[in-house]
Amino acid sequence: MLAKVAAHYGRGPVVAIDPHNSPILLEHSDAGASSYQEFLHSLRSNGVSDYVEPQVAYSTDVARSWNRPIRILWIDGDHTLKGAKDDLDAFLPFLVPNGVVAFHDALNQFPGPIRVFVEQVLASDRFGPSGFVHSIAWAQYRPVDGIEFRKRRSKLQRKAARLIPFVESGEELHGIRKKLYKLNRSRVPRSAVTAPEWCEGLRAR
Question: pTM of the prediction?
Answer without folding.
Answer: 0.89
